[in-house]
Backbone:
């Protein structure tokens, strides 16, 4: 793949690779959008954007294209929005394999279809070798929040329960394993998936749903810290309730990593009033992305720190935000 | 000639019976006038013929718990008056000093063991002894602001309290069975007998008893009963960490050698745990598995004296806590959390105002391992050359302790523990508030570690004060200099810093360093050849990790030694730099050496276990030759020798210690010989190792050497060093 300005080769490439798969409605420079849901009084638009960078770009359970679609859908979904439209922008390294790009685009289309989302506009740039690593993708997403739904962390109250939808750390562990050689590989798959259907199921079943966050970079620990601080509550996690695969746990033990900080691409945590916990669990388990739903903790009145975790032996420790690189502290 | 004089006494002079002491002296020297407490200490206005003798006696005859730092006098026109009065403290902030808790004095013990009204009374105390810092809830220090407030004085106690001739004059916690706290026992067994005898009976039956002490609960059992000790280990999930022991001196001497100096420290008012070399009758190995020393303390309160008298045997006295959590201090909290460990509770109804662990010390060579009950809030003098600026320092992450500096003295706070534990973090915040109030402290700057992942460092950044981040090992060195009163302009020293891990100025993890410099700054002159800390903090828990990377570096195959360990994965992750920062840590080098010799290679059940076992193994064959002596101190050859089965393991253990000591000592010696350094300072957590310390001292024979005496060489002393570095840098700025 040769980089360049607006040459003929580029246009052919874009036409063939992207437009043929995503099929935009118009050839204009902007997508023009409307949906009945938006016409209801009190409905609101939700807009989000995110850049995606991952090495390697393909890994067990997904690829950068799938993450770029799911990640943005999830950022809409955890706000209570029904995700509808996406844009996609590609920065492609000169020399990138066309077959790889084809696979990524197909993966994006497949994921968008499954989530009921259209990729309505996009852009591509090819940059000099070394200016980026294979391919970077930025997606923006638009969704509609139904009248009356208002999820936000400030709504969390003491006594609410924290529920996750499934296994934690699969994505982070998969990426680490995929980067290492055989010695580090374990039969792991990224949890990369979209959570739109799951969130709609919970919204329907739990009128009291307070807030939800996808636990991506920084893991569950960081998502909970943000939520607890915003809400002015403290959250206590129960270590023995955390759904973590033995393979992930084992890998974390060897690498000295804490699975609470591993990135996820299909995990979220939400807070519901205690009385709606069972309804939320049932709703989550009714969709594939929520099969492993589990109560992992509880909010309490604000204490000295936002998040703590109680171990199986009764000890407790503070669970911090991830601040940069974790350097050893044991002297 | 009759003259008037205004005499100011500074030091630890409040709450220790100083004013009645002055009153008695005045009578003896025929001095009239008055004495009072104020924010600066004690003030005497005296009028008489022999004021010189009176002033001299103030210094030389001070009561046991007093420490007189300065006596300053000037002439004054005191209105001549008849007699000598003790004047009530005036105004707020008049009495600001609180002294450390002190072990029961001989006179109180006689009363408790005698037939008077305090016979058998577990809470007897006087101005020469008793609880202090652990009962203070506010300032000024008087009964209303202690946990003795709910106990109204009976007539007899009030008379003592108000009589300047009585040793209980103004003893705030004065009490008797009529009016003071009481003890009781909760647990099974015959209801007959008092609280103490029921507890003792339970101990003799092999039960575990939670005992409420001065600074927190202990878990006690009969130390001569191997089954009871094993039961305590199982219940506490504490497989091997040595237990502290309590017994009267005569009993201690049956199980360990006790020198005259050791006896003095054991029986001093601080009554710390003292590490003593095993000798004589053995106790079950489970008390301190694999160790050559035992940690002993003498009973420090009447309750403990009575319990030891009734049990008539040494007791295990380990802190009453859930593994990893701080010591329990409340009665309800004890029932709730220690119920799973203890068969019974020896309780009392005097609340503990603040958690204070037992201090842990060694006498020969001298070393403070933990500063707690009996030592804090005692202050340390500052070396010459430092200004009067006020600084607070927040220390490290693992053995957190804070330090406040003011008016030429440093208050190095009590051992708090690991700050990721929520209760310990709360205790940190409480200590910060408490000490600031106690010291009436208004810091101009806050000092902390360079490591932004330390909770204390993050806290320092949020105060709105200028923050001075100090490199970890520079702080260790400065703490050692400060402990030795090395003047600010005393010139550069060579600092041998053998430590666990601290963030270096180059972004790697340091811990085996030869630093050259002083409070103001240091250069890194030599260091152990770095190796990856494979798994970050996991490397500090699992010694095999360190052995694997060192053996691989030395061209040996670690898989041979560590079957069943994921050695290939570990080395792969280390090569890729996945959570494997480079480190020159000496602590991890000890772990690696221990693992090579088969000493807890899998996991350390407590911090320092591998190194402590290595030391205990090495002392069995003192005198073997050192391993080969080598800016990077290579260790590849050392590891090849460590793996050589031709040499008995204890010899290898000893040669490892000796080689490390010599490698650093020879380089430090060279700096002194070249005139670059004026002395050598030994600091860092590894110098808790008595063998390493002795060998290093031996290798530095003839060179001036500074070692820690009153402050821990481990991170417990870090805050003092940080504060001194910050102060020194503020001076030069
Ligand atoms: Fe240290
Ligand atoms: Mg995002
Ligand atoms: Zn006494
Ligand atoms: Zn009384």
Residues:
């Amino acid at each position: 793949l040769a980089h360049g300005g607006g040459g003929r080769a580029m246009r052919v490439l874009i036409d063939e690779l992207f437009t043929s798969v995503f099929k935009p409605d118009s050839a204009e420079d902007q997508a023009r959008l409307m949906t009945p849901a938006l016409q209801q009084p009190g409905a609101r638009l939700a807009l989000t954007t995110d850049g995606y960078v991952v090495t390697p770009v393909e890994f067990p359970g997904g690829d950068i294209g799938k993450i770029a679609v799911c990640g943005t859908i999830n950022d809409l979904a955890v706000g209570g929005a029904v995700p509808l439209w996406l844009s996609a922008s590609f920065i492609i390294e000169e020399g990138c394999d066309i077959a790889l790009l084809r696979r990524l685009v197909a993966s994006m289309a497949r994921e968008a279809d499954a989530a009921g989302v259209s990729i309505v506009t996009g852009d591509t740039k090819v940059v000099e070798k070394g200016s980026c690593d294979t391919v970077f993708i930025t997606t923006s997403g638009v969704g509609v929040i139904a009248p009356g739904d208002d999820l936000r962390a400030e709504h969390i109250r003491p006594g609410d329960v924290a529920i996750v939808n499934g296994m934690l750390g699969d994505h982070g562990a998969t990426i680490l394993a995929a980067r290492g050689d055989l010695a580090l590989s374990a039969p792991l798959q990224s949890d990369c998936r979209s959570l739109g259907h799951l969130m709609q199921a919970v919204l329907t079943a739990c009128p009291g749903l307070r807030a939800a966050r996808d636990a991506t970079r920084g893991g569950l620990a960081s998502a909970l810290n943000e939520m607890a601080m915003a809400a002015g509550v403290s959250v206590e996690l129960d270590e023995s309730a955390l759904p973590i695969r033995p393979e992930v746990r084992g890998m974390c033990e060897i690498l000295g990593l804490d699975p609470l900080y591993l990135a996820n691409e299909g995990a979220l945590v939400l807070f519901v009033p205690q009385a709606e916990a069972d309804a939320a669990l049932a709703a989550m388990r009714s969709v594939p992305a929520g099969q492993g739903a589990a109560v992992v903790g509880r909010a309490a009145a604000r204490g000295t720190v936002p998040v703590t975790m109680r171990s199986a032996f009764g000890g407790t420790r503070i669970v911090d935000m991830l601040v940069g690189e974790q350097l050893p502290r044991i002297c | 000639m009759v003259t008037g004089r205004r005499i100011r006494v500074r030091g630890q002079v409040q709450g220790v019976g100083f004013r009645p002491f002055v009153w008695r002296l005045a009578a003896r020297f025929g001095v009239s006038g008055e004495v009072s407490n104020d924010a600066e200490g004690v003030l005497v206005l005296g009028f008489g013929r022999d004021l010189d003798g009176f002033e001299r006696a103030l210094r030389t005859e001070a009561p046991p718990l007093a420490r007189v730092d300065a006596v300053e006098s000037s002439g004054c026109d005191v209105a001549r008056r008849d007699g000598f009065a003790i004047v009530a403290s005036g105004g707020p902030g008049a009495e600001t000093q609180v002294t450390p808790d002190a072990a029961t004095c001989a006179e109180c013990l006689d009363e408790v063991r005698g037939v008077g009204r305090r016979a058998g009374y577990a809470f007897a105390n006087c101005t020469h002894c008793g609880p202090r810092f652990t009962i203070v809830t506010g300032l000024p220090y008087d009964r209303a602001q202690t946990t003795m407030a709910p106990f109204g004085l009976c007539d007899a106690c009030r008379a003592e309290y108000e009589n300047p001739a009585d040793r209980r004059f103004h003893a705030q916690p004065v009490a008797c069975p009529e009016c003071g706290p009481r003890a009781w026992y909760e647990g099974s067994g015959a209801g007959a007998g008092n609280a103490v005898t029921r507890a003792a009976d339970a101990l003799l039956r092999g039960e575990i008893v939670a005992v409420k002490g001065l600074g927190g609960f202990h878990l006690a059992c009969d130390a001569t009963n191997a089954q009871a000790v094993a039961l305590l280990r199982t219940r506490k999930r504490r497989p091997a960490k040595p237990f502290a022991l309590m017994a009267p001196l005569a009993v201690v001497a049956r199980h360990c050698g006790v020198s005259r100096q050791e006896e003095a420290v054991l029986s001093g008012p601080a009554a710390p745990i003292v590490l003593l070399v095993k000798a004589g009758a053995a106790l079950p190995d489970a008390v301190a598995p694999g160790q050559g020393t035992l940690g002993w303390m003498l009973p420090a309160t009447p309750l403990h004296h009575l319990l030891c008298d009734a049990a008539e045997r040494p007791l295990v006295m380990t802190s009453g806590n859930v593994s990893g959590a701080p010591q329990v201090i409340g009665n309800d909290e004890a029932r709730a959390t220690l119920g799973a460990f203890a068969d019974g509770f020896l309780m009392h109804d005097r609340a503990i105002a603040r958690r204070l662990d037992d201090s842990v010390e060694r006498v020969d060579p001298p070393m403070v391992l933990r500063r707690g009950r009996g030592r804090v809030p005692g202050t340390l003098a500052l070396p010459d050359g430092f200004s009067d600026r006020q600084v607070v320092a927040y220390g490290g992450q693992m053995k957190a302790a804070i330090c406040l500096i003011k008016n030429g003295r440093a208050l190095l706070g009590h051992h708090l523990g690991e700050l990721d534990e929520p209760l310990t973090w709360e205790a940190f915040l409480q200590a910060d508030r408490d000490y600031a109030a106690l010291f009436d402290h208004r810091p101009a700057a806050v000092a902390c570690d360079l490591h932004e992942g330390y909770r204390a460092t993050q806290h320092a950044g949020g105060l709105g004060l200028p923050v001075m981040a100090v490199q970890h090992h520079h702080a260790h060195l400065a703490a050692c200099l400060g402990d030795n009163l090395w003047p600010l302009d005393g010139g550069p020293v060579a600092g041998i810093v053998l430590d666990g891990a601290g963030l270096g100025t180059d972004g790697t993890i340091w811990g085996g360093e030869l630093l050259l410099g002083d409070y103001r700054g240091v250069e890194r002159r030599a260091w152990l050849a770095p190796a990856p800390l494979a798994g970050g903090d996991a490397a500090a828990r699992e010694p095999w990790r360190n052995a694997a990377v060192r053996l691989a570096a030395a061209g040996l195959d670690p898989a041979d030694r560590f079957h069943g360990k994921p050695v290939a994965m570990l080395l792969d992750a280390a090569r890729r730099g996945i959570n494997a920062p480079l480190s020159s840590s000496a602590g991890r080098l000890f772990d690696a050496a221990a693992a090579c010799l088969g000493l807890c290679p899998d996991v350390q059940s407590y911090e320092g276990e591998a190194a402590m076992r290595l030391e205990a193994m090495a002392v069995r064959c003192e005198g073997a030759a050192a391993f080969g002596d080598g800016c990077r101190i290579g260790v590849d050859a050392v590891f090849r020798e460590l793996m050589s089965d031709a040499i008995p393991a204890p010899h290898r253990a000893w040669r490892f210690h000796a080689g490390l000591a010599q490698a650093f000592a020879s380089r430090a010696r060279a700096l002194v010989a070249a005139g670059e350094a004026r002395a050598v300072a030994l600091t860092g957590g590894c110098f808790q190792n008595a063998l390493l310390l002795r060998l290093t001292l031996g290798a530095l024979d003839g060179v001036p050497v500074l070692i820690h005496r009153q402050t821990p060489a481990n991170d417990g002393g870090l805050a003092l060093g940080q504060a001194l570095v910050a102060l020194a840098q503020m001076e030069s700025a």
User: Anything to note?
Assistant: The CA atoms of residues 70 and 194 of chain A lie 5 Å apart. The longest helix of chain A spans residues 98-115.
